[in-house]
Design a protein that fits this description.
- This protein is α/β, with parallel strands linked by helices.
- The protein has four domains: 110 residues, Nucleotidyltransferase, domain 5; 165 residues, 2-Layer Sandwich (Nucleotidyltransferase, domain 5); 133 residues, Hypothetical protein af1432, CATH 1.10.3210.10; 58 residues, Alpha-Beta Plaits, CATH 3.30.70.2260.
- The chain is built from 18 helices and 14 strands.
Length: 504
């Protein structure tokens, strides 16, 4: 599958961005960019609820973005949300309205996944260097730190400090003084100290920043000749001078500097305080700026999926190694689960590809919990899938994966409350039957079967001779048939004569 144009939407804590790119072989060339300052983070109440006025402002923006995306195929657009929607308690309810306004699904991504995508975007927009590069991205609600080489991130972290949250916390009335600024810097320094040693130990040969805060600071330093000797980017000396100006003037709104945009004024102090702490704690002297950021990283990640270089596949393989999953058993269960699913739907139809991939990943990871404890391993595996940092996977993806892993055995009632589609119950059925048939963990062939599914019923035709020859499996299937009515579905086993082929 390929597209001439693809699009990424970034629901950041400060601004929303939409970027459209033209695909030429393995490269993406920007065609169109939309940006609107929404300040999602400023709409969070003390109880971590997203206020109605902020929601309305966000939805109006997404409606405008949705108009631009008309005509795009759903698979050619990826929308991601970051820190504010990670922490907002009413995020789920808001996302229903947001997806309706935008017209495409929105993925809430974890902090480290955000960091990974930022690095991909930044590195594609910068010249290649031989050594390692540190990329820093100060967002509205979080700041990401990544060290990588070429296009591959090596270590990633996301810290809960951003230009919006820090400006609201330390400069709520817009007033700036030395005491407030020092408190903001010290708070950021304490956060950075948690990662500083590991990052210094790995080391880097170049530092780059991405996103709006870094660009605003770099513009102010360059246009107002605050950097020494006309050096471009962000320098330690330039930051010191900008900091002194902010404190002396007492308000970002009173600054008379070239390049200071009105939308940056309310969040400038928080951003400069965080950047100053970064320079101090990581002993940085100069930082370049990258035009690439999260949205460009999303575009390249999306392009990778089209070219069968899906990061999620690599993550699944990594998790199998990390949790010492039995590769042969995973392959058996995957093969049988896909064979069952293939009798329910046409596997080569594009609309079935998401379910096909989800079932594949679940089958490969269904036993990762065994390395924690054999007792209730499906519960442990589901917890890992739901809560671990899984590069390439959104939180929604991880929730679906955890649903299947938890549902592979035992009582179906424990997953009955999950809000999933009928197709996901089909996937649970396929995984449960496949795991049941391969309980002996050998290469014995599965029986010749026929399976049919409706919205609420499953029918499984099996040879009568096989059922007689495998009483343990027959008994387990009979128990399985008693389990499904407890979640409002039925499962019927039909015995088929080997000679006649008729089902009883």
């Amino acid at each position: 599958m390929s597209y001439e144009q693809i699009a990424a939407v970034d629901l950041g804590s400060n601004s929303f961005h939409l970027q459209v790119g033209r695909v030429v072989e393995d490269q993406i060339y920007p065609l169109d960019t939309l940006k609107e300052t929404v300040r999602l983070a400023s709409g969070l109440t003390a109880e971590k609820m997203l206020g109605e006025a902020t929601q309305d402002r966000a939805l109006e923006t997404l409606c405008r973005f949705g108009e631009r995306l008309r005509g795009f195929q759903p698979d050619s657009v990826r929308a991601v949300a970051t820190n504010t929607l990670r922490v907002a308690k009413n995020a789920a309810a808001f996302l229903v309205k947001a997806e309706a306004a935008l017209g495409v699904p929105i993925e809430v991504i974890a902090g480290r996944e955000e960091a990974r995508l930022i690095y991909i975007g930044a590195s594609h927009a910068l010249p290649t260097i031989r050594g390692r590069r540190l990329v820093v991205d100060i967002g509205g609600g979080s700041t990401e730190f990544i060290i990588g080489k070429r296009f591959t991130p090596m270590i990633m972290e996301s810290l809960y400090m951003g230009c919006v949250s820090y400006s609201l916390r330390f400069f709520p009335d817009g007033k700036i003084d030395k005491k407030r600024f020092s408190e903001a810097e010290m708070s950021a320094a304490r956060e950075i100290q948690l990662i500083a040693q590991d990052y210094r130990q790995l080391g880097w040969s170049e530092v780059a920043a991405s996103s709006g805060t870094a660009r605003a600071i770099a513009d102010l330093l360059e246009l107002n000749k605050l950097n020494p000797d006309g050096v471009t980017g962000i320098t330690r000396d330039g930051l010191v001078r900008l900091r002194s100006l902010l404190i002396r003037v007492g308000s970002a709104a009173e600054l008379k500097l070239d390049g200071l945009r009105a939308d940056r004024v309310p969040v400038l102090a928080g951003g400069v305080a965080i950047m100053s702490a970064i320079f101090s704690e990581l002993a940085i002297e100069r930082m370049t700026y990258s035009e690439g950021a999260l949205r460009l990283g999303v575009l390249y990640d999306l392009l990778g999926r089209f070219h069968h270089h899906d990061m999620r596949d690599a993550t699944v393989q990594q998790f199998m190694r990390r949790y010492q999953a039995d590769i042969r058993q995973a392959a058996r269960v995957k093969r049988t689960a896909l064979a069952l699913f293939g009798q329910m739907v046409e596997l080569d139809r594009p609309e079935n590809e998401p379910d096909l991939r989800l079932l594949t990943w679940a089958a490969m990871l269904h036993e990762i919990g065994i390395s924690i404890s054999h007792s209730g391993f499906h519960k442990h595996g589901a917890y890992v899938a739901a809560n671990a940092d899984m590069p390439g996977f959104s939180k929604k993806d991880q929730g679906k994966l955890a649903f299947l892993i938890l549902g592979q055995r035992g009582k179906l009632e424990r997953i009955a409350s999950a809000e999933v589609s009928d197709s996901h119950w089909r996937l649970v059925f396929c995984l449960r039957i496949a795991a049941l048939w391969h309980r002996s963990r050998d290469d014995q062939p599965v029986p010749q079967f026929r399976v049919r599914a409706t919205a609420s019923e499953f029918y499984l035709d099996l040879p009568n001779d096989w059922l007689h020859a495998n009483p343990l499996s027959a008994s387990a299937l009979a128990d399985e048939a008693l389990t499904w009515p407890r979640v409002g579905r039925s499962f019927r086993i039909r015995r088929r004569s080997a000679l006649s082929g008729r089902s009883d």
